[in-house]
Specification:
heterodimer, B: alpha/beta, D-Maltodextrin-Binding Protein, domain 2, six-stranded mixed beta sheet, 7 helices, elongated
C-alpha cells in the first residue's frame, strides 16, 4: 500500500470527523522534549525519537498529537471544542523493529465540561460508525474505577499515593500491594534498618545532593509504615476482583455494583460507567454486546485516566486500528492550574488499508 | 577473501585473548610496528586477524564485516538491538569479568533495593523539582532494567568515564557502571544495590549470524571451531 493511498484514506476519515463538527488543526512535528519527559519519564526515550539542539535543548519528533493539541487548546481554544487532525507520528521500536516507526494517525478530540459521559459516548459512537465497514472488535475499559478503588482503600494516605503513582505499571503496583498487605516478606536490609537504634551511625561521609535530612525523613516514613497495620486481605481481594472484571458492559456493570457494596468508594465511578452505558445506548451502541475489561489500557495508555477504548482486528500481529480515551489529568498537568475534561481517539489508516488488502 | 576474526586491539583484553587462542593451538600476534593495527594468525589457514576497538566489534559483527569477534557481553547487549538474532555466543573466555550494577552513596542507609530506589526517587523529585539522575554510559540496558522493575521518576545522564565521581561532583545521585572487584565503588563511598545486576558480562567469542562464510571461508571456520572446540 502506498503513502498516497494512506493519505487518501486519512483525508476521508478526517472529512468524516469534520462532518461531525470538528475543526481541523495542525501541530508541529518537532516538539520540545521536556514536557514528554516530565509526563512519562525516562521510558519515553525508548518510544520516541529524541534529538538535541544547541539553542532549543532536547527536542522530539511528535509521538502523538494529543499533547500538542491539548497545549494548543489551553493556549487559544474556545469552549467547548472539537478538533480533528491527520499526520505522521514517529515511534522508536527498539524491542519490535518489525513494527512501523512512522505512521499516519487521524484523530478526533472533544473538550467539553458539560457532560463527560455524553462526550465519551459521542467519541466512541463516532469511531464505531466510521469503522463499521471493517468488522473490528471493540473493547472498552475505565481506568477511573481502579483509581477510585485505590483512593478508597482503608489504609494511609501515603500508601494510597504510592499505589496511585504506579497505577500504570502493573508489576510495581502488584509489588506494592504485596508489601502493604504483608504478603511479601520485609527484605532483610529493611528489617535491619528498622531494628537499628541509630541507622545513621555508620553511614560514612555525606556525599551528593540528597541530604541527610531527606534520608532521615525517609527512615521516619519507613518506621511509621512498619507500625501501620497491613492492608487487609479483603481490601486486596476487592482490587483483584475489579482488575479481573472482563465481560460485556451490562454484566460488568452488575458485577461492579456488587463490588461497590463492599467498596463504596467506587460507587461514583461505577455510576459514571452506568451513565456512559446509557449515553452509548442512546446513540445506538449495543452495550449488551460491547466488551468491557477493567484493566484494559493500563500498561500502554499512560495518559488515559477514565474511559478507554480500542478497535482491534482479529488478524494476528496487527496493531490496534483505533485507540482512545479520556485524559482529564493530562489537561490539568499541561494547563498549569487550569483544566478541562477531554476525550478523544486516533485511527491508523495504514492498518485499515492493510486489513482491506488482506480480505 | 578470508575468514575475519575481530579481536580487541590493545591492552589486557587483547593479551588475554591471544593467550586463550594460544592455549588452543591458534597463534595470534600483532605484526609491524607497535602503532600499526595489523596481525597474523598461525595454526589455521585462511583466517585473517582484524584488530579493532572492543566497542566497535559488536557493530562489525552485526554488519557482517567480520565473521567472528571477541568482545564483552555488555557491549553486545548495549549496542545491538535484538542481539541474539545478529550474533551467536560460541564461548565464554573466562576473563574480562564485569557486572553492570546500580550503586548509590553509602550514606543512603535507607536505600538497598530497587523498591527503595523508586521510593527515594519519588521523594527526591518532590524535594528538588527534577528527576533523580543516574549517571551511566549503558543507557539502553539500564533503562530496560529499570523499566522492567517499574522504577519511575529518574533520568539517565550520560557519563563516559569517571562515573563513580559524578555523585560527589553533584552531577548525579546514583550510578550504573561496570565493576569487577567493587574497589572503585568503595573508594568513592558507594554501595551496590542488593539486586541481581543489570547484566553479568565477560569476554566472549561471538559468531556473526549476518556474515555467511562460503567456500574456503566455510572450511576455515570449521577448522578454527574444531581447533578451539567451540
Amino acid at each position: 500500500m502506498s503513502l498516497k493511498q494512506i493519505n487518501a484514506k486519512a483525508a476521508a476519515l478526517r472529512a468524516a470527523f469534520e462532518a461531525a463538527g470538528a475543526e481541523v488543526v495542525d501541530c508541529d512535528i518537532l516538539l520540545p522534549a521536556e514536557i514528554f519527559l516530565d509526563l512519562y519519564g525516562e521510558d519515553v526515550r525508548t518510544r520516541a525519537y529524541m534529538s538535541s539542539d544547541p539553542a532549543r535543548g532536547e527536542v522530539m519528533l511528535r509521538p502523538d498529537f494529543t499533547v500538542p493539541v491539548v497545549q494548543k487548546h489551553m493556549d487559544e481554544g474556545a469552549e467547548p471544542a472539537r478538533y480533528t487532525y491527520s499526520g505522521a507520528v514517529f515511534r522508536r521500536q527498539e524491542e519490535h523493529p518489525e513494527r512501523a516507526s512512522e505512521y499516519v494517525q487521524v484523530g478526533y478530540e472533544v473538550f467539553d465540561r458539560e457532560d463527560p459521559e455524553a462526550a465519551d459516548a459521542e467519541v466512541f459512537a463516532l469511531f464505531q460508525q466510521v469503522l463499521a465497514p471493517h468488522g473490528l472488535r471493540a473493547v472498552t475499559g475505565d481506568i477511573g474505577i481502579l483509581t477510585a478503588a485505590v483512593q478508597g482503600l482503608d489504609t494511609s494516605e501515603r500508601r494510597r499515593k504510592a499505589l496511585m503513582r504506579h497505577i500504570w505499571r502493573p508489576r510495581r503496583f502488584r509489588a506494592l500491594l504485596d508489601r502493604f498487605s504483608g504478603r511479601a516478606p520485609v527484605p532483610p536490609s529493611r528489617a535491619a534498618l528498622l531494628a537499628s537504634a541509630d541507622p545513621m551511625a555508620d553511614r560514612g561521609p555525606q556525599i551528593g545532593l540528597r541530604s541527610e535530612a531527606e534520608i532521615a525523613e525517609r527512615i521516619a516514613v519507613l518506621r511509621t509504615d512498619a507500625e501501620e497495620p497491613h492492608l487487609s486481605k479483603g481490601q486486596v481481594e476487592l482490587i483483584e476482583a475489579i482488575l479481573k472484571v472482563s465481560e460485556t458492559c451490562s454484566f460488568a456493570l452488575e458485577h461492579l455494583r456488587d463490588i461497590a457494596v463492599d467498596l463504596p468508594a467506587i460507587s461514583g465511578a461505577v455510576e459514571r460507567f452506568a451513565r456512559r452505558c446509557e449515553a452509548l445506548a442512546a446513540r445506538g451502541v449495543a452495550v449488551e454486546q460491547l466488551d468491557f475489561e477493567a484493566s484494559y489500557g493500563r500498561s500502554s495508555m499512560e495518559y488515559y485516566d477514565g474511559f478507554v477504548f480500542g478497535f482491534l482486528s482479529n488478524q494476528l500481529g496487527t496493531p490496534p486500528v483505533a485507540t482512545g480515551g479520556r485524559y482529564d489529568a493530562l489537561t490539568r498537568h499541561l494547563g498549569q492550574g487550569r483544566e478541562i475534561p477531554a476525550v478523544g481517539g486516533v485511527i491508523r489508516p495504514g492498518v485499515l488499508l492493510d486489513l482491506e488488502g488482506r480480505s | 577473501m578470508s575468514l575475519k576474526l575481530g579481536v580487541p586491539s590493545k591492552g589486557r583484553l587483547m593479551e588475554k585473548t591471544f593467550d586463550w587462542f594460544g592455549a588452543r593451538g591458534v597463534g595470534l600476534k600483532r605484526t609491524g610496528s607497535d602503532r600499526e593495527y595489523a596481525g597474523a594468525v598461525d595454526g589455521v589457514d585462511g583466517v585473517e586477524l582484524v584488530l579493532l576497538s572492543a566497542g566497535e566489534i559488536p557493530r562489525e559483527l552485526a554488519a557482517g564485516h567480520i565473521h567472528l569477534g571477541v568482545t564483552g557481553m555488555d557491549l553486545i547487549q548495549e549496542k545491538l538491538v535484538q542481539w541474539d538474532q545478529k550474533v551467536e555466543p560460541l564461548a565464554e573466555l573466562g576473563f574480562g569479568h564485569a557486572d553492570l550494577i546500580l550503586a548509590v552513596p553509602n550514606c543512603w542507609v535507607d536505600v538497598n533495593t530497587l523498591d527503595d530506589l523508586d521510593a527515594a526517587a519519588a521523594a527526591f523529585r518532590e524535594a528538588h523539582g527534577f528527576r533523580m539522575r543516574i549517571a551511566t554510559k549503558y543507557h539502553r540496558l539500564v533503562r530496560q532494567y529499570l523499566h522492567h522493575a517499574g522504577v519511575a521518576d529518574y533520568q539517565l545522564v550520560d557519563s563516559q568515564g569517571a562515573t563513580e565521581g559524578t555523585i560527589k561532583n553533584l552531577t548525579s545521585e546514583a550510578v550504573a557502571d561496570i565493576t569487577s572487584s567493587g574497589e572503585t565503588l568503595r573508594a568513592n563511598h558507594l554501595k551496590i544495590l542488593e539486586e541481581e545486576p543489570v547484566l553479568r558480562s565477560q569476554a566472549t567469542l561471538f559468531r556473526s549470524r549476518v556474515a555467511k562464510p562460503e567456500g574456503a571461508d566455510r572450511v576455515a571456520l570449521d577448522a578454527l571451531r574444531d581447533k578451539l572446540s567451540v
